Each structure stands twice: as structure tokens, then as C-alpha cells.
């Protein structure tokens, strides 16, 4: 295929031929724990619950909403709560009591994410996908001062590219919302005069004010829930709409979100690792509630300013629901979620917890041992935590500064340096194609049970049939191709592996293979995008080169591929069963080939 080849990302595929970290049963044993609360965190929690149950950690979670989760905790109706907000003392709208009713608790960071701004702006029927909005522009849009997409301030944000005359439809949450709380806290801190003029007070609120204190409102809709926001923004009659919601919902709906201007003058998308890096600038109050002033003010050009996290409400007393076994499950379950569980969150629109927040969570979980000395807290060790944002070993070390790229021009100290956008009132932009690897770190391969037929098969290259292989597999996730070129020239993504090495022992790259798939959730690519063919390891099929040669992960022919296409693969490794146990590491390079 003719075209330009771009090496997009490197993923180290890590193999551990040993007990999977976090699966060992503590001496206290385990008992099922039940949580309720944040719907924002629901997708992440339910994914973790399903994965952890395979490791013998019984847990259930029901996304009833943050307010209900807090009420359930106060009524001792759950084992743990999850909330986008801390207890308020009293609900400012309903006047209902909102506290723990005497049940001892501690807050801990749990699910990191961002408030995103999905929009629908179409020019000649083609969606604009590269919108940039400064914080001041967002404030003036949501506070009713900018009402048309051709406003000069929007034009300035987009490097002189003027959008057509089109009324802005503002979509806000009608219910108590963590996203509303985070947005209004940002407005109150960064644009206090505008916010006070609109709201009449400097306080943030979880209910977006639908009746301003002064001035006029934009054309707006107040709708219930994140799904309601996305359904309204994406409706066929909503050209010109912009809303705010948790990034996971925008990703799931496949809609573009605005890049938001930060304090350094750069326009940044809510990419998972950018959100993670942003939260290293957060400071924690003594009770572990978060102060995001440092995120808002950070002059690191990679920061996404509306980053935040959801709270775990952890019981720290001897109430009727708690037992030693439940506390042990709490420790081991949340240790898993903070470590290995963080590898799956990026593909769902969340962000992995950075090292500072993992340490804060572990500090709170250790109090369960103080309450009940029979609880084993040995799993709460960041130095042995398989989290994609930091390295492990003798001491955990933050890696975000290494794996989050600087924006173009950042190292030259040029704020906002991005390619110029076309200055055209009617035509959509020429666009670009890129590959995004959400977590940009590693694929962990775990052993298939050798007691099963597929876990200890005969090696295909052994003519005697006496030698067998160990089989390992893991998921390559969080990979997407984003194509905004209306001409749709097509693209292909390939992958090629290096040998897997453990000290002086090498397993040839040909013994790696994969089974590619297209991920439908969050994808909106047009035309006949296809997953690549399965590649078998050489020890499984003697004539296969495995991934020692480039294999196709996915492709879009000419006339297809416009939009976002998420791709994934199950990665397979066969290795001789005479290989020594240990940690084998190799590199899988993904290459985007575009016309």
C-alpha cells in the first residue's frame, strides 16, 4: 500500500509466569461486599467487579446515583458508598440532611475522569471534530453571553477559523450532578465576576442554575442525567448544541468533545493520561476531599483543567454490616482496582489513578487494619502495584511525565502552538488521521490454566508430539484511529513484536499472535472498516510467522474510516513448557499507514 508510515506507539507486553498479583487469599478470607452510588463511576466499578470475581473477590455495585449512595451509607444499607461529591451537610435545594448520620467513614480517591464538552456542529452535513474553546469562552457560552457559533471569541480560539452563523443550544443537567458541581466550581474559581453576576453568589452548586441572577439565558435545555445530555446533544434537531457531562458518556456516544484551553494557553482534549497527569497537580485536604485549584492554575501545557475524581466512602467503624472478611475483601478489591484494574479504564472514558492518589487511597484502606488487626494489608504497596501511570520495584516512581507527550511547540515555550486551521466560513476542515493508544503502557499476559486442554497443548513444530507449550493471553485495549479527513483516503494499522526476554532466556517473537476485533462502543467510523485476520503463534501453527512479521490490526479502504474506530485484540503467547518461570518483556509496535 502506498502511503506514509507513522510509528504511533510502543506497548511492552509483560508476561508473568506466576501467581497473578492480587489473587492470593488473605488469611482472614473474603465475604461479599455491596456498594451503591455514582452512576458516573458505574461502568468502571462494574468492569472491576466482573474481573475481580474471577480472582475470588466477591463484590457487587449498583449505580444508583451519588446522592442515593450517600443516603445508603448513612442508613447502613451498603458496605461502601461511591459519590462524585462529599457529604454536603444539608442539600441546598431539598433541605434534606446529607451527612453520614454518625456512621464513621473516610474518603478515598477511586475513579478518575473529566468533565467533557460534547457538541454537535455540522457544516454542510459534516461534523466539525476539532473545536477548541478557552475557559473564558466556555464560561460565556454556559452563562449566556455567547449565543452564536460565529462569535469572534470562538473564531479567535480556533486560530481564525470562523464557524457559520448558527445559534448555540446549551444543554445542562437538571438533576444534582457531580459534573455540574465540577463545572460550577471551575467557573466560580476561574471567572468569579461572571459567575457571581449570573448566579448571585460565589458558591459552586450541583444544580445548574436555570434562572440567572442577571442577564439573559442562552437557548438552553435542562435534561436529566448524562444519558439525557448526550441524547439531546446528538439529536437530529440539535445542530449547534453543546453540553457538559462525564467524558465516559461522550466517548460511549461517539461524539466529539471540545479541546479546552488551560492556564498555559494550550487546548487539550480529556485524554485519559492527560487527565491522570492533571490530577498530580491536585492537593488533598486533611479529610481526603480534593482541591483542584492547582489543576486550574497549572501552567503545564499537558493539563486538562476540568479533571477530577469520584470518592470511595469507606466505613471505618464497627457498624453492624462490617466483619473481618468484608474488610479483607475491601482491602484486596480496592487494591486490585487501584493497580491492575486501572489498565481497562481508559477505553471506557476514565483515567488511571496517578501515584499520589493511589498512595492516598492506600493510606485510608490501611485504617481497616487499625480497626481490625486480623485484616491483612500487605497488598497495599505502590511499589508492587501494576498501575500504568507509575513504575514499580523497590520504590514506586511516577511515569506520567515520560509517557504524556508535550503539545506541539511546548518545548519551545510557544503557548497554543498548533497547526493553523482553515479560515473558511462554510467548508469543513481538511482534517487529519492519527492513532491513539489510551494508556500507552503495557499488555499483561496471564497463563491459561494448564489443567485445561488449551493450557498445555503439543507444540506444532515438534514432530514427535512429546513437547508441549504453556499458553498465555491478554487484552490489547484502548487503541483508536481518529480520521477527520472528509476525502476518506483510508488507513491501515499493523503491529509487529520483538522477542520476549527474561534475563538470558528468549522466547521468539514468532510465538506471539493475536485475534483482532473492532470495538463498537464509542466507534462511529463510516464505511467498511474491518479487523485484521487472526495471527497464530508459530508454536501453534508451524507455518505462521507470528507477530515477528507485521500483522494487520484493522484497516479502512478508500472511501471509509471517517470518524473514530476503536480496535482491540486478544494477544496470545505460546512458549515451550521447559522455559523458566519469570517476567518476560517485549515490545509491540503499532504503525498507522495512511494514504
What is the element layout, followed by pairings?
Elements: E1 4-16, E2 33-37, H1 42-53, E3 59-62, H2 66-74, E4 80-83, E5 89-90, E6 97-98, E7 105-116, E8 119-120, E9 122-123, E10 126-127, E11 132-133, H3 135-142, H4 152-157, E12 169-173, H5 178-190, H6 192-199, E13 219-223, H7 225-233, E14 241-243, E15 245-246, H8 247-253, E16 259-261, E17 267-268, H9 272-279, E18 283-284, E19 290-291, H10 293-297, E20 307-315, H11 324-338, H12 355-365, H13 367-371, E21 390-391, E22 397-398, H14 400-403, E23 433-437, E24 442-447, E25 469-483, E26 491-497, E27 500-502, E28 505-507, E29 512-519, E30 530-531, E31 551-556, E32 563-576, E33 583-594
Parallel strand pairs: 1-24, 2-3, 2-4, 11-16, 12-13, 12-14
Antiparallel strand pairs: 1-33, 4-20, 5-6, 7-15, 7-20, 8-14, 9-10, 16-17, 18-19, 21-22, 23-25, 24-25, 25-32, 26-31, 26-33, 27-28, 29-32, 30-31
Amino acid at each position: 500500500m502506498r502511503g506514509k508510515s507513522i510509528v504511533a506507539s510502543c506497548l511492552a507486553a509483560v508476561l508473568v509466569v506466576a501467581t497473578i498479583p492480587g489473587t492470593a487469599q488473605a488469611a482472614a478470607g473474603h465475604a461479599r461486599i455491596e456498594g451503591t452510588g455514582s452512576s458516573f463511576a458505574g461502568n468502571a466499578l462494574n468492569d472491576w467487579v466482573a474481573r475481580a470475581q474471577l480472582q475470588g473477590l466477591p463484590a457487587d455495585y449498583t449505580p444508583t446515583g451519588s446522592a442515593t449512595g450517600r443516603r445508603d451509607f448513612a442508613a447502613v444499607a451498603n458496605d461502601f458508598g461511591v459519590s462524585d461529591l462529599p457529604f454536603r451537610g444539608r442539600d441546598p435545594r431539598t433541605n434534606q440532611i446529607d451527612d453520614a448520620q454518625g456512621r464513621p467513614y473516610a474518603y478515598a480517591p477511586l475513579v478518575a475522569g473529566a468533565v467533557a464538552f460534547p457538541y454537535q456542529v455540522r457544516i454542510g452535513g459534516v461534523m466539525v471534530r476539532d473545536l477548541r474553546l478557552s475557559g473564558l469562552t466556555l464560561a460565556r457560552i454556559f452563562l449566556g453571553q455567547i449565543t452564536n457559533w460565529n462569535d469572534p471569541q470562538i473564531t479567535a480560539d480556533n486560530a481564525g477559523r470562523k464557524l457559520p452563523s448558527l445559534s448555540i443550544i446549551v444543554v445542562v443537567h437538571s438533576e444534582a450532578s457531580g459534573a455540574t458541581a465540577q463545572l460550577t466550581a471551575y467557573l466560580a474559581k476561574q471567572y468569579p465576576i461572571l459567575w457571581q453576576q449570573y448566579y448571585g453568589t460565589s458558591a459552586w452548586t450541583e444544580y445548574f442554575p436555570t434562572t440567572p441572577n442577571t442577564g439573559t439565558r442562552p437557548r438552553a435545555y435542562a435534561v436529566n442525567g448524562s444519558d439525557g445530555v448526550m441524547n439531546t446533544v446528538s439529536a437530529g434537531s440539535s445542530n449547534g448544541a453543546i453540553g457538559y457531562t462525564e467524558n465516559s458518556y461522550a466517548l460511549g456516544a461517539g461524539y466529539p468533545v471540545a479541546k479546552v484551553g488551560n492556564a498555559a494557553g494550550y487546548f487539550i482534549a480529556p485524554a485519559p493520561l492527560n487527565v491522570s497527569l492533571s490530577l498530580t497537580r491536585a492537593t488533598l485536604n486533611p479529610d481526603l476531599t480534593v482541591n483542584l485549584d492547582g489543576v486550574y492554575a497549572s501552567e503545564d501545557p499537558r493539563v486538562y483543567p476540568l479533571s477530577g475524581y469520584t470518592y470511595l466512602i469507606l466505613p471505618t467503624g464497627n457498624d453492624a454490616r462490617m466483619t473481618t472478611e468484608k474488610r479483607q475483601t475491601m482491602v484486596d478489591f480496592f487494591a486490585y482496582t487501584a493497580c491492575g484494574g486501572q489498565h481497562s479504564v481508559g477505553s471506557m472514558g476514565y483515567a488511571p489513578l496517578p501515584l499520589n492518589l493511589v498512595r492516598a487511597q492506600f493510606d485510608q484502606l490501611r485504617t481497616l487494619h487499625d480497626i481490625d488487626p486480623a485484616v491483612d494489608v500487605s497488598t497495599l504497596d505502590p511499589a508492587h502495584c501494576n498501575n500504568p501511570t507509575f513504575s514499580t520495584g523497590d520504590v514506586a516512581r511516577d511515569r506520567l511525565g515520560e509517557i504524556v507527550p508535550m503539545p506541539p511547540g511546548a518545548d519551545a515555550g510557544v503557548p497554543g502552538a498548533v497547526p493553523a486551521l482553515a479560515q473558511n466560513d462554510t467548508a469543513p476542515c481538511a482534517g487529519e488521521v492519527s492513532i491513539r493508544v489510551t494508556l500507552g503502557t503495557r499488555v499483561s499476559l496471564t497463563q491459561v490454566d494448564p489443567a485445561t486442554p488449551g493450557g498445555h497443548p503439543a507444540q506444532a513444530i515438534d514432530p514427535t508430539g512429546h513437547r508441549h507449550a504453556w499458553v498465555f493471553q491478554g487484552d490489547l485495549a484502548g487503541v483508536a484511529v481518529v480520521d477527520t479527513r472528509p476525502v476518506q483516503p483510508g488507513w491501515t494499522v499493523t503491529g509487529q513484536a520483538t522477542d520476549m526476554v527474561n534475563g538470558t532466556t528468549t522466547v521468539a517473537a514468532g510465538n506471539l499472535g493475536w485475534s483482532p476485533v473492532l470495538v463498537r462502543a464509542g466507534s462511529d467510523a463510516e464505511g467498511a472498516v474491518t479487523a485484521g485476520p487472526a495471527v497464530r503463534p508459530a508454536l501453534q501453527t508451524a507455518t505462521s510467522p507470528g507477530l515477528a512479521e507485521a500483522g494487520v490490526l484493522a484497516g479502512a479502504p478508500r472511501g471509509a474510516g471517517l470518524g473514530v474506530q476503536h480496535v482491540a485484540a486478544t494477544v496470545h503467547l505460546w512458549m515451550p513448557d521447559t522455559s523458566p518461570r519469570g517476567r518476560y518483556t517485549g515490545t509491540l509496535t503499532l504503525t498507522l499507514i495512511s494514504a
